[in-house]
């Protein structure tokens, strides 16, 4: 199939270029079929085929007015060569006839033939059979053009479909990549959230353990203080219950330090508090004071020379080392 224009198609079918131009102009370039219909409905003397005809065959073309002399010669059946005039041009290379120089020139351009001469052969108009054949040729050409157009449209549709598919695939890939990135971000955020939650739980657990230890230490300290207080009460009650008239020569003292184990020592009831202070000084390296726990009393310099008996520390008592 070719891609010729309507004008080239009609000229190749044997219609003269001038007549083809008039036909296309008359139908306002409406297409091949309207132009063909116009050509068949407007025969004239100026119409001649472009493609020409082979010598010895019936020429293809439209009606040509014959002169009265040629009609007479035809009726008589013979025409002398010397009385005939040139009615057409013949291609010596392929023996095709042409109405005028323009059609011969067009043939020369297409075929490359250059040998032309004048001919007395008259190109006769188309017969009904030839017109029918041209119409069939036109239908064939139109069908070929339609087929070509349909094929072109199919190819274009295939091309557009490929582009759509490719575009859709690219969009799908872009969407998939975006979704993957969003998923990665979500996973990172979730992982971070879990880590923060783990750290928060660990912090709360550590705080709970610290609170437990603190409460246990407070309970133990309270227990020790209670036990100590009970011991002091027992000692005081025992001292109160003792016979005041009984004479004791010794005093057993328990002296508690700020740190470390208590100092327990037996003194003479006639020893002064200074003796006790000197004994405690061997264990405590910094200045201190002595005091009782029950009843609570702080000893000063005025009591240092008094005996333990005079200070009611006989037969036993509990003293506390107090740092200033």
From TrEMBL:
GO terms for molecular function: K48-linked polyubiquitin modification-dependent protein binding. GO terms for cellular component: cytoplasm; nucleus. Residues 73-83, 126-136 have a biased composition (Basic and acidic residues). InterPro entries: UBA (IPR015940), UBA-like_sf (IPR009060), Ubiquitin-like_domsf (IPR029071), UBX_dom (IPR001012), Znf_C2H2_type (IPR013087). Its main location: cytoplasm. SMART domains: UBX (SM00166). It comes from the Eukaryota. The keyword Iron-sulfur does not apply. The keyword Amino-acid biosynthesis does not apply. Keywords: Coiled coil, Cytoplasm. GO terms for biological process: negative regulation of proteasomal ubiquitin-dependent protein catabolic process; negative regulation of protein K48-linked deubiquitination; negative regulation of protein ubiquitination. Residues 37-85, 114-136 are annotated as: Disordered. It is found in: Cytoplasm. Residues 246-321 form the UBX domain. Residues 1-42 form the UBA domain. This is UBX domain-containing protein. It comes from Diversispora epigaea.
